[in-house]
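ping. complex inputs:
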Amino acid sequence: MSIVGGLALFDLAARISKQPFIPEMSDVFVRIFELLTDQDVLSDFNRSLQNLFLGFTISVVFGILIGVLCGRYDTVERTLRPYLNLMLTSPSILFVPIYFAIFGISRWAIIVLIIDYSVFFLIVSVTTAVQSVSKETVEMASVFGATEKQTLRLIYLPSAMPVIFTALRVTVGRAVKGMINGELFIAVVGIGARSQSFARQLDMVGVFALAIIVVCIALLLGAFLNVFDKRVNSWAPQARASK
Amino acid sequence: MIKISNAHKTFVKPATRKTPERKVEVLNGIDLDIQENEFITIVGPSGCGKTTLLRAIAGLVKLDSGSIVAAGETVAGPSPDRAMVFQSFALMPWANVIRNVAFGLEIRGVDKEEREQTARDLIKTVGLAGFENSLPSELSGGMKQRVGLARALAVNPRILLMDEPFGGLDEQTKRLMQEELLRLWEAQRKTVVFVTHSLDEAILLADRCILMAARPGRITEVLDIPLGRPRTREAERTSTYIDLKEKIWDHLRTAQIQELAEKAN
Amino acid sequence: MNAAFELAVDPETWRLFGVSNQSLIIGFFISALVGVVSGILISRFKWLERALDPWLDFLLVIPIAMIMPFVILTMGFSLTSRCLIVCLFTFPIIVINTRAGLRQVSTELIDMAQVFGANERNIWTKILVKSAAPMIWSGLRAGLARAISGMVLSELLLVSVGIGSLFQLFQGEFNPEKTFGLVALLIAESLFLLKALALLERRTIPWFYADRDK
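pong. complex structure:
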């Protein structure tokens, strides 16, 4: 309800103020449709989403792997902790110039940035998830003669999955942020780049339209993860929506 | 001191995906008279309404119909005159023991020196001397509940309401706290309503014991506890005690079995 | 690393840092104040929460970086617009954390306060805000990180009055070493600021960390 109300208010403000740069919402929605049917724009999306997919997948693979190792083996965690802390506490955006300097204007700069935004958070989350697996359950497994590999596969992984999935949802958001921020600064093609070009042309309706599309993409990916989560982790008590 | 007349309270359990909306009659026409300086325990299975009844006396729960008159006034809301000791202690984690104990006095507007002095005295009384500046996170469960008790006594209430106060403690601490409570109560015989799951507590501490049953929540029996005062643990070895305990357990056992059967359906 | 030192001893660097950080500091303080107050108001007045909730989630998810040019274009290049950008980055997470902190206050504690005679004002000042403090601080820390991001983003993409101009300069000179040095300085600064905030937090809510130190 209030979204509609807010948008209507915004629209009104736009019409009244006649500021050249506050877009009218009706225009924005029209523009969204136009963009979604424009071949060039769609190839931009394609490009961006490819980068996103690559960066995200790499982050997930390494994130879960290293996270599990850190969670299970204290020495690993202690060795890596200072680096993880450093990368987590310093705002990832600061690394944009570095990646740009190393990789130049190429998709790898963006992919590495996406990984920067995603993997460290994921590692720490997975570590916590693994560390919070009930010690008793692990002991139970050893009493029944489980090997290390079996324990990891049959106890740790399933127990930690619900928390890991929650972390994955957040990671998706971070990855999208990384993709956009990277593209705004570095890229020539892609959603971010197109947004920049719109901005330079003072095409604010376009910028808004793209922003809304990006938000929708992030929400869709999150929802997709949700569905996947429910199927994989149907055993876990689902947290009630905290509204 | 406390007169409960025809108290009714129904909770509505909202519908979930698997079950329709349900009305739970938590209190169904409760009538009870509690005398001044009496120590009452209430025991019963989960869901029998004992905690709801206690909270209604406290004024934290509003009855659908019926009334509760405590110390001459109809209960309309919570008041420090009906102080409460909580099962999970309800201590403010950011405040030390003195500030926690003095909380009720602070709200009342008593000035700092006076309330801290009162707090210190009570801290000594409950056996926590030396821990005045400790934070709750530094205390054990039993110690935390002593703070809860001191806080309740600090406002000098006429009625003391205790909601399974020793439920979260281990057996040994529990027994110690029961003895402490008996000792404290002997010194200052307040009117106490004490809700518990424990059969031993129900008998050992009480002058009278109220048995409640669930669905609908009601009083099934009121037992006199003729075990003499001052009460000590010696009482546990009398045949009166053993008979009473068996009687209460009979009552609870039936209720437990019933509940399991209902859940299976 | 030499580059970092060279930059550090150059007074011009500090001047530019100062210019950039103005928007950071002012923006963060305003966001913190307004954010916490908003979080409290939202928790107190349900209608307000219902109205603002979708906008909050929206602001949190949307890459503010994309909308930044819009702010500059409507408000021009000024300290105000740069501060506003920082606020856009920082404000949502602080409000959300404040609200979450107030929400998770144990009802038992509130019951206790009512039993002992507290009125609504008492409950707010003596129980709710104090209980929510750890989460509020967590929001402030996250907010500071975002504020720094926002400041850096606006420097890199829009207004090159401060360190952004340095970046442009080094890019033009094709001098990656200097760029690295500058980034190193920035990282050092952000770590410093975050650490300072963490220390302040420790002093304000020592009770939250008391048992972890044992």
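Chain C touches chain B at residues 106, 108-109, 111-118, 122, 126-127, 130-131, 133, 205, 207-208, 210-211, 214 (CB under 8 Å).
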